[in-house]
Task: inverse folding
């Protein structure tokens, strides 16, 4: 089991499964931290003794060896007695930590910042975001007073400050000056001696049309540098002030156009005008595609916009407000079920209130919305709504409407297991239609759908091609959420093709993908996905099902709990939990959930449920369980069917 280390904050270690490692006492942690700070080099025992104690006690060398022995037991619990240590090794006169670059957060951070130099701006921003997210507090926080840590703490702190400034500079390069301002403002307040940070803040303000604020910041920088540090601004900052006063700096064209257009809109369109609602939904649609806070805000404000439209009493306006939010959806669990229910109810009311003269396309968009927002339901109505929307769209010869309707149909193709080929057909039509008519967001959707379908079928050559095409489109059209999904796909691919030997590496890839998912604004995908992916992998390969008690299983708890109870020897409790668990929902994880359910039923002797699991899974006998999700797999469905058929739970 691989071990990971964190020093960008308090010193910690955790297993490949994500569980914390007990590092014993503070001296044990300090020895480990001292070896991490050496970055793989050997630290002589005498040097460790001198670093740990100002006045070393008698027996200090023996104590260090005792600390090392305890650390080895904690870090490599499966190592046999007298087997040489592989991680914390003895080398000549001392010890060294032989961990990979990815195993230590500080090493990963430094490598990511170094990689920024040769990256395109969008990739550089992603690298910097990922790198800065590793920080949990000051480096080596619990050894701030230790002399041995001073140089490394200083190096890492300086590298972090540089990374913050490079991120701001990258945002300016990408034309996102307004996004750079808040972090830079906080940065200069905390680190007023950073002249380059002041320069970047002035540029960011100026490029968003805030010339007066930019001048004010320049004056503040001059005052702080002079009063607190007793120095004059450097040549770059002085030249920037001269250029700003002469109006010789280029203003961010995008930011200026946005500011001018927004001002003109506010001046010409009345505050209560119905057209403002339609304009707002158009903006929310674009905001949703940015992910993170943008997606969360768009989902929240969409419900408010619909409610405001209904209050105006114009069904056709309400229909346009509801239907124009045609944000593609590839995941089958709603991020916010309560909000989705409100949208569906409003769409149904509006369908009933539309006059006969309303355009058919208006009705089709409402029907597609009903199907899009009714994910995972057992009712046949959403699928019928999707089919009617598709029929209207095909008659209308409106490519954008047809793409939206095809998305709705895709989200309703989970009536049973084994439908990956049908979904691939939907994805293929989406790709062809969107490529021909410049519908980039739906072309990305089509690629992701085909990536999922081919992964389910075990065709990773084709799945790789679609993942790469989706990433390329995302880079060209600034769609950051795509990288979240393709990163999960590549973790799944590693799990699927690497076999049992690559299980630990696959779990590490799942954790890295989960880190990228955090804050992406997709709680319907995020909660519980990492432990579920790990559980599926461990069940497939017969690995121990050890998870911390506080693991958040999210919506997947009912299908995970029986197996976890069995792993703890609580067979009766597992049987009771299995009886309480609902039937797996018909979604992208349908086959994986049934595999887990069937294995638990087999272990507790619930033959009726074993038979139901076998019947549910048989149509997908040639697929990889769960791989159609594009995020995880429990291995070949046939492998689990064999276990269910024979009544034997094989390992392999």
Result:
């Amino acid at each position: 089991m691989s071990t990971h280390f964190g020093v960008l904050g308090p010193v910690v270690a955790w297993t490949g499964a994500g569980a914390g490692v007990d590092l014993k006492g503070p001296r044990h942690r300090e020895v480990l931290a001292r070896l991490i700070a050496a970055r793989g080099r050997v630290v002589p025992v005498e040097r460790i003794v001198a670093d740990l104690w100002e006045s070393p006690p008698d027996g200090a060398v023996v104590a260090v060896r005792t600390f090392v022995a305890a650390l080895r037991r904690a870090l490599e619990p499966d190592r046999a007695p007298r087997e040489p240590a592989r991680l914390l090794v003895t080398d000549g006169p001392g010890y060294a930590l032989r961990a990979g670059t990815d195993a230590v957060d500080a090493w990963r951070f430094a490598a990511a910042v170094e990689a920024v130099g040769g990256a395109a701006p969008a990739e550089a921003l992603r690298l910097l975001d990922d790198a800065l997210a590793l920080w949990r507090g000051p480096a080596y926080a619990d050894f701030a007073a230790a002399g041995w840590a001073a140089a490394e703490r200083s190096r890492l702190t300086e590298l972090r400050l540089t990374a913050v400034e490079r991120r701001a500079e990258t945002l300016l390069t990408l034309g996102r000056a307004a996004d750079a301002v808040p972090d830079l403002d906080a940065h200069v307040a905390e680190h007023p001696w950073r002249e380059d940070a002041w320069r970047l803040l002035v540029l960011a303000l100026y490029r968003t049309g805030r010339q007066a604020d930019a001048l004010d910041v320049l004056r503040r920088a001059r005052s702080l540098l002079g009063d607190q540090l007793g120095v004059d601004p450097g040549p770059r900052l002085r030249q920037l002030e001269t250029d700003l006063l002469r109006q010789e700096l280029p203003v961010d064209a995008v930011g200026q156009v946005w500011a001018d257009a927004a001002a003109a809109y506010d001046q010409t369109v009345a505050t209560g005008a119905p057209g403002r609602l339609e304009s707002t939904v158009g903006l929310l649609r674009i905001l949703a595609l940015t992910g993170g806070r943008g997606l969360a805000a768009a989902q929240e404000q969409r419900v408010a916009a619909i409610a405001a439209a209904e209050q105006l009493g114009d069904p056709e306006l309400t229909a346009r407000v509801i239907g124009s939010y045609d944000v593609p959806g590839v995941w089958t669990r709603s991020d916010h079920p309560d909000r989705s229910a409100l949208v569906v109810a409003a769409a149904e009311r509006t369908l009933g209130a539309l006059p006969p003269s309303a355009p058919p396309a208006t009705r089709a968009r409402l029907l597609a919305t009903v199907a899009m927002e009714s994910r995972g339901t057992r009712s046949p109505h959403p699928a019928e709504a999707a089919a009617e929307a598709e029929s209207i769209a095909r008659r209308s010869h409106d490519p954008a409407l047809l793409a939206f309707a095809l998305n709705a149909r895709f989200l309703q193709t989970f009536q049973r297991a084994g439908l990956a080929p049908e979904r691939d057909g939907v994805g293929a039509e989406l790709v062809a239609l969107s490529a021909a008519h410049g519908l980039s967001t739906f072309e990305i959707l089509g690629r992701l759908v085909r990536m999922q379908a081919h992964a389910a079928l075990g065709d990773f050559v084709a799945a790789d091609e679609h993942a790469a095409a989706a990433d390329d489109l995302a880079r060209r059209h600034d769609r950051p959420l795509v990288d979240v999904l393709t990163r999960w796909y590549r973790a799944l691919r590693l799990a699927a093709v690497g076999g049992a030997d690559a299980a630990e590496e696959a779990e590490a890839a799942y954790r890295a993908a989960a880190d990228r998912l955090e804050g992406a604004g997709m709680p319907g995908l995020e909660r519980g996905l990492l432990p579920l992916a790990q559980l599926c992998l461990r069940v497939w390969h017969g690995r121990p099902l050890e998870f911390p008690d506080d693991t958040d299983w999210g919506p997947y708890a009912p299908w995970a709990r029986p197996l976890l109870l069995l792993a703890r020897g609580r067979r009766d409790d597992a049987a009771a939990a299995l009886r309480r668990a609902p039937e797996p929902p018909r979604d992208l994880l349908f086959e994986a959930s049934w595999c887990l359910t069937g294995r638990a039923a087999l272990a507790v002797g619930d033959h009726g449920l074993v038979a139901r699991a076998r019947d549910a899974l048989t149509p997908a006998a040639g697929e990889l369980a769960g791989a159609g999700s594009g995020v995880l797999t429990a291995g070949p469905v046939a492998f689990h069917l064999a276990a269910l058929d024979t009544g034997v739970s094989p390992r392999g």
Summary: Residues 648-652 have pLDDT under 50 and may be disordered. The first strand starts at residue 3 and ends at 6.
